[in-house]
Design brief:
This protein has about 110 residues and is an all-beta fold. The chain is built from no helices and 5 strands. It is globular and about 35 Å long.
Length: about 110
Amino acid sequence: LDEVAEDIRNLVLLKTLNLRNNIIDHIPESIGKLQDLKWLDVSYNKLLLFPTAFCALGSIIYMDISRNKIAALHENIGDLQLLEHLRAAFNNLTQLPQTLGKLQHLHSLDVS
């Protein structure tokens, strides 16, 4: 799979989305409309940027963005108040946003 269609926004009842191990380099902003999404895995892709729309996923509990080429996490990641697990290992991160400190439910953070 090399792209995610804009129509993904129509899957409003989606709870789990596994896009692991593809060649996706861009996630459409429409993914932010998936307000019931709890589990997201986009690891092992070709993402260069952390999609801003991920910060609109208000129900997200688990997010795996590992093994991409992401250089920075968006400042608004602190808005994901229900996030418990964030895996961001093996990217090109050089620093973490201070807003990570707002994630009161975060149990595990992997940025190795």
